[in-house]
TrEMBL record:
Keyword terms: Hydrolase
EC number: 3.2.2.-
Family, per entry: Belongs to the QNG1 protein family.
Protein name (database record): Queuosine 5'-phosphate N-glycosylase/hydrolase
Role of this protein: Catalyzes the hydrolysis of queuosine 5'-phosphate, releasing the nucleobase queuine (q). Is required for salvage of queuine from exogenous queuosine (Q) that is imported and then converted to queuosine 5'-phosphate intracellularly.
Cited InterPro entries: Q_salvage
Catalytic activity as recorded in UniProt: queuosine 5'-phosphate + H2O = queuine + D-ribose 5-phosphate
Pfam families cross-referenced by the UniProt entry: Q_salvage
GO biological process: one example: tRNA modification
Molecular function as annotated in GO: hydrolase activity
Amino acid sequence: MFEERISVLHEVGQVLLEKYDGKFANVIRECRASAQMLVETVVREFPCFRDEHEFCGRSVYLYKRAQILVADIWACFEGHGFGSFNDIDQITMFADYRVPQALYHFGALGYSPRLLEYLRRSEIAVQQGDSGHTQPPKPGLLPSGHPWELEIRGNSIWAVEQICRHIRASGHNVNAILIDFYMWDYAKEHTTAMRAIPIHLTRSKFY
């Protein structure tokens, strides 16, 4: 996706130069320590962050990249300076493909037998060189915005929210960002042990 990546860089750079004196720090300042406002500003000003889709006749907004942008700033500055947000807990997990695998591993997310079989066959098909341009149920790359992809990502967000509520109920302070970071690192560190759990394969600039 080299051309898409170049296009994203050009788009972001142009907006920053035209509206924010070439500095993303000015975008952060404009949002007055609100993580939610920063997400909304990024999505409004930079179209490449608009992770928006149609599902069962309704619009859904996942905004994975916009939210992980805010989370990374928060983590990098350890909640101080540019990373100080008064509503950081409003950020959800970052719905892509690796965290759902970890959620499935821990029993926090389940797939129907039909979907699980499709994902397993898709991994084999892609490894064998499937072009990925066909629609399910033929195995291959799952198109961005397909209902199955949206269900996996949406239910992953809800699963992490449920985990957050359970942990908070026991008196511990946690948010979806910390759980996502943990799940991602766990999945990467235990790749071999989790090899039997298939991931959905989607080529998208929103991940």
